[in-house]
């Protein structure tokens, strides 16, 4: 099992914590991590784009000039793709881009992402992360003490969530809403010992 340092909100090291290898020390499956990221981005797409094919553009029913004898190339419709105002050759139509991953695959991808953060020393554990009041400045001071800029903060504390809402490059998530894309997008994952225990309970 790997050990990580535990810090307080002032940025001082106050101990160490042994992480469960079933969550934070798995063999990294890059294929499933990639698939999880692609799936999340694909599932966010609206898929509402639409353009008209030559059969859907109004007009163009009459042959613009006779077939032979004009010196022009033969044309059958003014709504063919090569004409201004014509249809699009392979026009996009509304579609659903989402696809599914098995639950086991999603769990392995998430654990792989968490493992990479541990291996890169980008997982910061606090003994406690709690604010008495909603104050962005206090939350920014905590991140400054930890020397963290672009971070995903895993917490259920409402004051922390609201205080971090207006800080650039900082996102909050609960244990249940963590996802592979955000873990990889943000440089550092910040959580307290209670959140670590909950992650190990849910995903081990």
TrEMBL record:
One of the primary rRNA binding proteins, this protein initially binds near the 5'-end of the 23S rRNA. It is important during the early stages of 50S assembly. It makes multiple contacts with different domains of the 23S rRNA in the assembled 50S subunit and ribosome. Forms part of the polypeptide exit tunnel. InterPro entries: Ribosomal_uL4, Ribosomal_uL4-like, Ribosomal_uL4_dom_sf. Belongs to the universal ribosomal protein uL4 family. Keywords: Ribonucleoprotein, Ribosomal protein, RNA-binding, rRNA-binding. Part of the 50S ribosomal subunit. GO terms for biological process: translation. Gene3D superfamilies: 3.40.1370.10. It comes from Blautia faecicola. The keyword Disulfide bond does not apply. Pfam families: Ribosomal_L4. Residues 43-85 are annotated as: Disordered. GO terms for cellular component: ribonucleoprotein complex; ribosome. This is Large ribosomal subunit protein uL4. The keyword Lipid biosynthesis does not apply. NCBIfam families: rplD_bact. GO terms for molecular function: rRNA binding; structural constituent of ribosome.
């Amino acid at each position: 099992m790997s050990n990580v340092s535990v810090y307080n909100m002032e940025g001082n090291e106050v101990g160490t914590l042994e992480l469960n290898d079933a969550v934070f020390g798995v063999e990294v499956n890059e294929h499933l991590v990639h698939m999880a990221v692609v799936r999340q981005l694909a599932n966010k797409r609206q898929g509402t784009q639409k353009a008209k094919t030559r059969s859907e553009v109004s007009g163009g029913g009459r042959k613009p000039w006779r077939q032979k004898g004009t010196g022009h190339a033969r044309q059958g419709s003014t709504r063919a793709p090569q004409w201004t105002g014509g249809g699009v050759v392979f026009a996009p139509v509304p579609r659903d881009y989402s696809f599914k991953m098995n639950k086991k695959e999603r769990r392995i991808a998430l654990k792989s992402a968490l493992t990479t953060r541990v291996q890169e020393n980008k997982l910061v554990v606090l003994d406690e992360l709690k604010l008495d009041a909603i104050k962005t400045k206090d939350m920014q001071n905590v991140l400054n003490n930890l020397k963290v800029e672009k971070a995903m903060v895993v917490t259920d504390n409402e004051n922390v969530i609201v205080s971090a809402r207006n800080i650039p490059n900082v996102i909050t998530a609960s244990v249940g809403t963590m996802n592979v894309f955000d873990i990889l997008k943000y440089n550092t994952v910040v959580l307290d010992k209670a959140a670590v225990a909950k992650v190990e309970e849910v995903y081990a």
